[in-house]
Amino acid sequence: MSKAPSLSRRPPRRFWGWGNADAALSEREHATLKGMLAALESRYASRPEPRLDEFTLPAPRVTPSANLAALFSATPLDRLNHSAGKSYADCARMWLRQAPTPPDWVAFPEDEQGVIDILDWAQSNNVAVIPYGGGSSVCGGVEAAVGDSYAAVVSLDLERLNRVLEVDPVSRAACIQAGALGPELEAQLKPHQLTLRHFPQSFEFSSLGGWIVTRAGGHYATQQTHIDDFVEATRLVTPSGVMHTRRLPGSGAGPAPDRLVLGSEGTLGVLTEAWVRLQAPPRFRASASVHFAQYKAAANCVRAIAQSGLNPSNCRLLDTQEAVFAGVGDGRKAILVLGFESADHGLQAWMARALELVSDHGGTYDAEAVSRSMSDQDTIEHRSGAAGAWREAFLRMPYWRDPAVGLGVIMDTFETAITWERFADFYAGVKTDLSRAIKKATGQDTQLSCRLTHVYPDGPAPYLTFATRAADGSVASALSAWREIKQAANEAVIAHGGTITHHHAVGRDHRSGYEREVDPLFRTMVAAAKHAVDPKGILNPGVLIDPVNRPVGITGALAK
Amino acid sequence: MSKAPSLSRRPPRRFWGWGNADAALSEREHATLKGMLAALESRYASRPEPRLDEFTLPAPRVTPSANLAALFSATPLDRLNHSAGKSYADCARMWLRQAPTPPDWVAFPEDEQGVIDILDWAQSNNVAVIPYGGGSSVCGGVEAAVGDSYAAVVSLDLERLNRVLEVDPVSRAACIQAGALGPELEAQLKPHQLTLRHFPQSFEFSSLGGWIVTRAGGHYATQQTHIDDFVEATRLVTPSGVMHTRRLPGSGAGPAPDRLVLGSEGTLGVLTEAWVRLQAPPRFRASASVHFAQYKAAANCVRAIAQSGLNPSNCRLLDTQEAVFAGVGDGRKAILVLGFESADHGLQAWMARALELVSDHGGTYDAEAVSRSMSDQDTIEHRSGAAGAWREAFLRMPYWRDPAVGLGVIMDTFETAITWERFADFYAGVKTDLSRAIKKATGQDTQLSCRLTHVYPDGPAPYLTFATRAADGSVASALSAWREIKQAANEAVIAHGGTITHHHAVGRDHRSGYEREVDPLFRTMVAAAKHAVDPKGILNPGVLIDPVNRPVGITGALAK
Questions:
Q1: What is the mean pLDDT of the segment spanning B394-398?
Q2: Better-scored residue on pLDDT, B328 or A483
Q3: Burial bucket for residue A437 (CB in 10 Å: 0-12, 13-18, 19+)
Q4: What distance in Å separates residue B241's CA from the closest CA in chain A?
């Protein structure tokens, strides 16, 4: 195998898991992991981590044209890093030393012209192109699994398009290149005292472009829940040319062009830059940790808050099991983490009314602690307190999942949204169906936990988590069980009336649910729109929809 | 001509203008009209209103199939009522006794199956279909002007699909048929103590379906400015079948299907029903009328409020000329009408902070009046006071435009949105360009007035109004001048960076601007999506885009 260095300019990534190659767990994280394994009656026995030399990759099937060669890498590290995303199954396959569909090449264009040139070359040579931002997909969205009808596959990594190009402080907006990761773009915005304030769990290793094309879920629990609401204009390189939209605060001129780019998951073009709406960093905060003895009352309280027009920035309801997982519960109470923030005004009136609603529904809280939470410190991040701790643990969670996967643990999450009037039945029904599916696949009795990550006047977005293990403790059995469980989760979410994804995207792994959720006529319209700009069907084939006349079907982690 | 009665079950409409056939002006409205004419140095000399027998309509070119015949009308009243919308030019042509493109038939389906049957028949017989809700389009969106390649044209009136089918009080949503006019749907929601609270100026004569497919602008000045935000699910009859979307509070599963229906303007299918998000009627209100000596300071204040997160329901900035038109100004001050409302909580803190921002920017207000405005009356509408009077005048405006048009007055509005950093130049540039165009077309010096109808953190939605007259006072000259002015307005709005429409839709009259604003690749994608469900191109041809392989081009009022 080639010993050439990676063409990536970022610190080397851990191809078999989350974070940079040198990421390490803290003592406390080790303890958390051990505790979880003990709870699963599983042993913590260190297993050797995957190494590059354990993977044998086939030689690239095509040669890039000479004028583009300097942008193309075929090093094992680059190819493995771009062979899949970061779902449970993606990581499990790495522990099994499986990388069934590595891309032939990874391309690192320097600029938009590079993207155009690469698409031109790919289109002329029947090469599939997988747009790649931070690579954090948990649904097979960046996996180089495109079926047999392409001459080769290139993963197109946008890491060099990572600059904030222009800031408009008056309108509070910025033009940012699509490859910028969360920390990169926030660092560039900070001197302007502005922030995008979009903090998905993948923040460190996901990009603006990825957020937009997957409709990522962000910081705010209400109102502007998705990145969608912050997109002012986009620039998309398609195989038929560059499509751009006009910077506008609002418009009613035909179907909204950006709304077709949002959620297109790399199938219509490669997003190269976008104008996004920014905010001033919050100066005022108020938060409360509310306890409920009854989950039903807690859910009704959240509904009342969601319908009140108070628009909290945080309104995260943890059920009893989730509270235990998060280390803040005793297994008997549901916990509502409620927060307001503003760059403009103190939040006493907002919090006071929300707490009236809390009391109306039987919630209890420490009034002193709420009072102490009312900060007006002029800091971009107020990291102390329970919210700060929760957030830090939230961002670190993918790190300690990695060794757990290697030890045979199956950890996964799925998320959805559902209207309020169906929520109670949905919550009970999905938990029952999934517990049954897990029992069937693994023999284990497993608790699912649920938190509400975002809430709307007409319904919540539940986020479910489970951890279990295969009966024999092997990764191979665990992966096999995961496939059954994942299919059952797709089925349960749709059968009980939810959406296949509120903010994790469709990719390859959610297609079975997507095709039941979304009308075939709409999918036909999207395929026709794609065909108009990508007539050869080279862009991310198999994700979301199949190209016209080019069936790909379900590939990737679920297909084996 | 046939003497058959109209098949419409609603009170007879005034085919040549706004409202029902028996609509009459009040004494005060007569006085307003006379004042306006005097200001234009024009005479108020009553001219005979258009009568049905002054129009000779060609015989219908096709015969509906026998099983559908009972749903089809070819009475002169129905055909004239459906020959165009209610723009200035639509009314002027009626005063000129011109109805150049009446539909051959008007169809009144009883239910969704009727819509399906009519589309089937039309598709088999090369008949164009114009979906028709309330008929209030001001951009040629319902005009039966489809060019020469169709065997006939049917206007498909949804007035019989006007019921609220289901109310979900828990999630606060309702399934409503698309043909329901504003007052119809509000009357049916009222017993449930819920409201859609969508009040465009056309409220009395526009329908839910029309609002959705044109992305109508509604009640709220901030956050949920368009009907878009209230759409939970849709049901669209296309020539290839019925497309429906799932009721969901939010989703990230691919491009949002409803967002392609929103703004489709009848070109993709006929919307038959939609689930929409409702609210409890407001119980708490606070309002202020703020005066500014400097428009620039006023605009900066509105920007600060729009970026504050306070989210007023009303934040309408009238420039000095607009304040005069509205009867609330002395020609020296700009006026900001600021309002908050809530069904949940008192608004003292919200208004207090907004008034701090007002004072920071040099605005003045009557603190006593603000204090008196703080109501918590349990009424669905708080009609007293300046806001109530303004609103009543707002809804009545189209009524007294009618006789003015007949007297040779050109009255029109255009609206857009623009980012804040370009707003000052836009405001000055568009006013200059339009004043010049009006002078050229009419010989008159004319003031344009401007109000901001909706505001976003990144920019306002300016709404401009002008009234002028042709040099010779004739309607024919006025219409001819209007064509020049309208083209100039389309050009100016786009050239200075705005959108061709914030909430009036594209239709036929805004296509010249739409085609400059929206990337050809996106329009190609929309046309391809249309072709996938409407392969013969029978739905509203010429609106928004041309059907694939079936050029229609710009028809209607601007084409002559």
A1: 85
A2: A483
A3: buried
A4: 8
The pLDDT of residue B37: 85
pLDDT band at B207, cuts 50/70/90? Answer: very high
Contacts of A261 in chain B (CB under 8 A): 255
What is the CATH code of the structural domain delimited by B284-379? 3.30.70.3450
Q: What per-residue confidence (pLDDT) applies to B396?
A: 87
Q: Does B257 touch chain A (CB under 8 A)?
A: yes
How distant is the Cα of B162 from the closest Cα of chain A, in angstroms?
Answer: 23
Residue A55 CA to residue A100 CA, distance in Å, equals 10
A198 touches chain B (CB under 8 A): no
Q: Express each pLDDT in B236-294 by its tens digit.
A: 999 999 999 999 999 999 999 999 999 999 999 999 999 999 999 999 999 999 999 99
Q: Please tell me the predicted confidence (pLDDT) of residue B380.
A: 38
DSSP A371: H
CB-based contact B168 A419, cutoff 8 Å? yes
Mean pLDDT of chain B: 94
Residue of A167, A168, A171 to mutate, testing the B interface (most B Cβ within 10 Å of its Cβ): A171
pLDDT tens track for B13-36? 999 999 999 998 999 888 888 888
**CATH 3.30.465.10 domain span(s) along chain A:** 166-277
**What pTM did the predictor assign?**
0.97
Tell which residue, A136, A142, A141, has the closest CA to residue A155.
Answer: A142
Chain A residues touching B233 at Cβ < 8 A:
none
Nearest CB among B246, B262, B510 relative to A255 is that of B262
Query: Would you state the CATH architecture of domain A166-277?
Result: 2-Layer Sandwich (3.30)
> What confidence score (pLDDT) does residue A400 get?
85
Q: Do the Cβ atoms of A75 and A83 come closer than 8 Å?
A: no
Q: Which residues pair with B415 in a beta bridge?
A: B463
Partner A contacted by B348 (CB < 8 A): yes
* Assigned fold of B164-277: 3.30.465
pLDDT at A265: 98
Q: Which of residues 134-173 of B touch A (CB under 8 A)?
A: 168, 170-173
Domain with CATH 3.30.465.10 in chain B: 164-277
More confident residue, A16 or A393: A16
Tell me the pairing of strands B314-318 and B334-342: antiparallel
Question: Given this model, what pLDDT does residue A263 score?
Answer: 98
* Nearest in space to A373 (alpha carbons), one of A385, A389, A361: A385
Q: Identify which of A243, A246, A505 has the shortest CB distance to residue B521.
A: A243
CATH 3.30.43.10: which residues of chain A? 27-160+536-558
Task: Give me the amino acid identity at A173.
Answer: A
Q: Which of A283, A518, A534 is most worth mutating to test chain B (most B CB atoms within 10 A of its CB)?
A: A518
B254 touches chain A (CB under 8 A): yes
pLDDT surpassing 70 at residue A126: yes
Read off the pLDDT of each residue in A194-206 and give the average, rounded to a whole number.
96
Q: Look at the domain A27-160+536-558 and name its fold.
A: 3.30.43
| Distance between B556 CA and the closest CA of chain A, angstroms | 18
Q: Is B244 close to A504, i.e. CB distance below 8 A?
A: no
pLDDT for A149-160, tens place per residue? 999 999 999 999
pLDDT at B109 over 50: yes
Ranges of CATH 3.30.70.3450 domains, chain B: 284-379
Using a pLDDT cut of 90, give the percent of chain B over it: 86
Report the DSSP beta bridge partners of residue B559. Answer: none
CA A497/CA A449 separation, integer angstroms: 19
Which DSSP state fits A557?
A: G
B506 touches chain A (CB under 8 A): yes
User: Cβ separation of A421 and B252 shorter than 8 Å?
Assistant: no
Task: At B366, give phi and psi (nearest 5°).
Answer: -90, 105
Q: Do residues A480 and A410 lie in contact, with contact meaning Cβ atoms separated by under 8 Å?
A: no
Q: Is B414 on the interface with A (CB under 8 A)?
A: no
Residue A499, chain B, CB below 8 Å: the answer is yes
How many whole angstroms separate alpha carbon B322 and alpha carbon B35?
Answer: 15
Tell me the shortest Cα–Cα distance from B55 to chain A, in angstroms: 34
In what helix (H) or strand (E) does residue A476 lie, and over which residues does it extend? helix A475-495
